[in-house]
From TrEMBL:
Residues 3-144 form the N-acetyltransferase domain. It comes from Roseibium polysiphoniae. This is N-acetyltransferase. PROSITE patterns: GNAT. InterPro entries: Acyl_CoA_acyltransferase (IPR016181), GNAT_dom (IPR000182). Pfam families: Acetyltransf_1. CDD domains: NAT_SF.
Amino acid sequence: MPELIRESVASDFPVLEGLYPLAFPDEDLLPLLRDLFASGCDLLSLVAEADGAVVGHVVFTMVQVGRTDVKAALLGPVAVGPDRQKQGIGSALIERGFSLLADENVSRIFVLGDPAYYGRFGFGPESKVVTPFEIPVEWREGWQSRTLSDGASDVSGTLVVPEPWNKRDLWAPPE
Ligand SMILES: CC(C)(COP(=O)(O)OP(=O)(O)OC[C@H]1O[C@@H](n2cnc3c(N)ncnc32)[C@H](O)[C@@H]1OP(=O)(O)O)[C@@H](O)C(=O)NCCC(=O)NCCS
């Protein structure tokens, strides 16, 4: 477990620039992170500290479902340094995010990721809310959601994402 989970600040970015290429050797997610932080869009960005150093990160982006007023967030990316994985840090970051978002009355969370991992956080296949770009067939089972509070279980429409997420490449496996 991490010693501390806190909201990220601008001075954490150089650490994230080191952490992400280690966690994702085949995928460069730093441009997305840079855009998210620079865009001023509504985010929840959390870092985990262990032994006084940042060892993990997660970001949730506030999104809209069609024209509904459902408060919703998109989870990802999440990264933990390879030497700190399997110590509960990723889970702690995600669960803290859920708790902070629930406090803000966010009722639905979406994710595009491995169901084998996200299933443990209560995510299941999403079919009524569609992604801004069509997901290639090999990734389709990765599109998942979970509710955080009652009342948002039956939403449908197209996910409306802020500009940093409005890129086809982010909705397909890396080449
Ligand atoms: C995925 C990741 C964030 C998990 O962080 P973590 O701190 O290692 O996670 P936790 O310790 O809380 O949980 C680890 C558990 O998840 C499992 N797990 C990790 N990645 C998994 C995957 N892709 N599929 C299935 N299970 C996975 C581990 O086997 C472990 O299982 P166990 O608890 O039964 O031993 C981290 O491994 C990571 O940064 N990976 C590389 C980047 C990545 O794939 N990010 C997620 C996609 S956005």
